[in-house]
Protein backbone atom coordinates (compact mmCIF):
# COMPACT_ATOMS: atom_id res chain seq x y z
CA UNK A 1 0.00 0.00 0.00
CA UNK A 2 1.46 3.33 -1.06
CA UNK A 3 1.39 6.11 1.50
CA UNK A 4 1.98 9.81 1.10
CA UNK A 5 2.27 12.51 3.72
CA UNK A 6 1.52 16.18 3.35
CA UNK A 7 0.92 19.53 4.96
CA UNK A 8 -2.27 21.60 4.79
CA UNK A 9 -1.07 25.15 5.39
CA UNK A 10 -3.75 27.57 6.53
CA UNK A 11 -4.10 31.17 7.61
CA UNK A 12 -6.97 33.22 8.97
CA UNK A 13 -8.26 36.38 7.33
CA UNK A 14 -11.03 38.13 9.28
CA UNK A 15 -11.24 34.95 11.42
CA UNK A 16 -12.06 32.84 8.34
CA UNK A 17 -9.58 30.16 7.23
CA UNK A 18 -7.84 30.22 3.89
CA UNK A 19 -6.03 27.17 2.53
CA UNK A 20 -2.75 26.97 0.62
CA UNK A 21 -3.01 24.55 -2.31
CA UNK A 22 -0.65 23.63 -5.13
CA UNK A 23 -1.20 22.57 -8.73
CA UNK A 24 0.96 19.67 -9.99
CA UNK A 25 3.41 20.54 -12.74
CA UNK A 26 4.13 18.52 -15.85
CA UNK A 27 2.23 17.64 -18.99
CA UNK A 28 -0.41 15.39 -17.39
CA UNK A 29 -1.91 18.23 -15.36
CA UNK A 30 -1.28 21.13 -17.76
CA UNK A 31 -4.91 21.37 -18.89
CA UNK A 32 -6.51 20.27 -15.61
CA UNK A 33 -7.70 22.75 -12.99
CA UNK A 34 -10.76 21.99 -10.84
CA UNK A 35 -10.13 18.73 -8.98
CA UNK A 36 -6.40 18.68 -9.78
CA UNK A 37 -5.09 20.93 -6.97
CA UNK A 38 -3.69 19.27 -3.87
CA UNK A 39 -1.90 19.72 -0.58
CA UNK A 40 1.90 19.60 -0.95
CA UNK A 41 2.70 15.92 -0.31
CA UNK A 42 4.91 13.03 -1.28
CA UNK A 43 5.54 9.33 -0.86
CA UNK A 44 6.71 8.06 2.52
CA UNK A 45 9.97 6.15 2.20
CA UNK A 46 10.89 4.33 5.43
CA UNK A 47 12.65 4.81 7.75
CA UNK A 48 11.56 8.47 7.43
CA UNK A 49 8.56 9.20 9.65
CA UNK A 50 5.32 10.37 8.01
CA UNK A 51 5.52 13.83 9.63
CA UNK A 52 9.17 14.23 8.58
CA UNK A 53 8.13 13.24 5.03
CA UNK A 54 5.32 15.82 5.07
CA UNK A 55 7.68 18.58 6.23
CA UNK A 56 10.38 17.63 3.69
CA UNK A 57 7.91 17.42 0.81
CA UNK A 58 6.37 20.79 1.66
CA UNK A 59 9.82 22.36 1.69
CA UNK A 60 10.82 20.68 -1.60
CA UNK A 61 7.63 21.80 -3.33
CA UNK A 62 7.46 25.36 -1.99
CA UNK A 63 10.96 26.33 -0.84
CA UNK A 64 9.66 26.98 2.68
CA UNK A 65 9.98 24.72 5.74
CA UNK A 66 6.77 24.62 7.81
CA UNK A 67 7.07 25.09 11.57
CA UNK A 68 4.59 23.55 14.03
CA UNK A 69 2.60 23.06 16.06
CA UNK A 70 1.24 20.46 13.64
CA UNK A 71 -2.41 19.39 13.83
CA UNK A 72 -2.87 15.73 12.83
CA UNK A 73 -5.84 15.09 10.53
CA UNK A 74 -7.47 11.75 9.74
CA UNK A 75 -5.90 9.96 6.78
CA UNK A 76 -7.76 9.80 3.49
CA UNK A 77 -7.65 7.29 0.64
CA UNK A 78 -7.41 8.63 -2.90
CA UNK A 79 -9.11 6.98 -5.89
CA UNK A 80 -5.98 5.03 -6.84
CA UNK A 81 -5.84 3.52 -3.33
CA UNK A 82 -3.00 5.70 -2.04
CA UNK A 83 -3.31 6.58 1.66
CA UNK A 84 -2.55 10.22 2.44
CA UNK A 85 -1.55 11.25 5.96
CA UNK A 86 -1.86 14.97 6.62
CA UNK A 87 -1.00 17.57 9.22
CA UNK A 88 -2.36 21.10 9.24
CA UNK A 89 -0.21 24.02 10.32
CA UNK A 90 -0.92 27.72 10.51
CA UNK A 91 1.39 30.00 8.58
CA UNK A 92 1.73 32.35 5.66
CA UNK A 93 3.51 32.03 2.37
CA UNK A 94 3.64 34.27 -0.69
CA UNK A 95 2.58 32.15 -3.70
CA UNK A 96 4.69 34.43 -5.93
CA UNK A 97 7.83 33.35 -4.04
CA UNK A 98 7.25 29.59 -4.18
CA UNK A 99 10.23 27.70 -5.60
CA UNK A 100 9.51 24.09 -6.51
CA UNK A 101 11.93 21.27 -7.12
CA UNK A 102 11.79 19.57 -10.53
CA UNK A 103 11.42 16.09 -11.97
CA UNK A 104 12.47 14.58 -15.29
CA UNK A 105 10.13 12.81 -17.66
CA UNK A 106 10.47 11.41 -21.15
CA UNK A 107 8.37 13.85 -23.15
CA UNK A 108 6.79 13.42 -25.58
CA UNK A 109 6.31 9.73 -24.70
CA UNK A 110 8.70 7.31 -26.47
CA UNK A 111 10.67 10.27 -27.89
CA UNK A 112 13.84 9.48 -25.98
CA UNK A 113 13.94 13.13 -24.88
CA UNK A 114 14.06 13.90 -21.15
CA UNK A 115 12.36 17.13 -20.11
CA UNK A 116 12.48 18.77 -16.69
CA UNK A 117 9.21 19.97 -15.14
CA UNK A 118 8.48 21.74 -11.83
CA UNK A 119 6.81 19.48 -9.29
CA UNK A 120 4.23 22.24 -8.81
CA UNK A 121 3.52 24.95 -11.38
CA UNK A 122 1.02 27.10 -9.45
CA UNK A 123 0.05 27.73 -5.86
CA UNK A 124 -2.38 29.97 -4.08
CA UNK A 125 -4.59 30.81 -1.13
CA UNK A 126 -8.26 29.88 -1.31
CA UNK A 127 -11.39 30.23 0.78
CA UNK A 128 -13.13 27.03 1.85
CA UNK A 129 -15.63 27.27 -1.03
CA UNK A 130 -12.88 27.89 -3.59
CA UNK A 131 -10.63 25.16 -2.17
CA UNK A 132 -13.46 22.60 -2.28
CA UNK A 133 -13.88 23.31 -6.00
CA UNK A 134 -10.18 23.01 -6.82
CA UNK A 135 -8.80 20.29 -4.55
CA UNK A 136 -8.72 16.58 -5.39
CA UNK A 137 -12.20 15.41 -4.35
CA UNK A 138 -10.81 12.85 -1.89
CA UNK A 139 -8.90 15.62 -0.07
CA UNK A 140 -12.02 17.71 0.64
CA UNK A 141 -12.39 15.95 3.99
CA UNK A 142 -8.99 17.34 5.04
CA UNK A 143 -10.37 20.87 4.62
CA UNK A 144 -13.54 19.94 6.50
CA UNK A 145 -11.62 18.30 9.34
CA UNK A 146 -9.50 21.40 9.81
CA UNK A 147 -12.55 23.69 9.80
CA UNK A 148 -14.19 21.51 12.46
CA UNK A 149 -10.99 21.62 14.55
CA UNK A 150 -10.75 25.41 14.25
CA UNK A 151 -14.41 25.84 15.18
CA UNK A 152 -14.01 23.23 17.95
Automatic annotation (TrEMBL):
Keywords: Hydrolase. Gene3D superfamilies: Nucleoside Triphosphate Pyrophosphohydrolase. Transmembrane segments: none annotated. InterPro entries: NUDIX_hydrolase-like_dom_sf (IPR015797), NUDIX_hydrolase_CS (IPR020084), NUDIX_hydrolase_dom (IPR000086), Nudix_hydrolase_domain (IPR051325). Residues 1-148 form the Nudix hydrolase domain. PROSITE patterns: NUDIX, NUDIX_BOX. One of its GO terms (biological process) is ATP biosynthetic process. GO terms for molecular function: bis(5'-nucleosyl)-tetraphosphatase (asymmetrical) activity. Coiled coil: none annotated. This is Predicted NTP pyrophosphohydrolase, NUDIX family. It comes from Parapedobacter indicus.
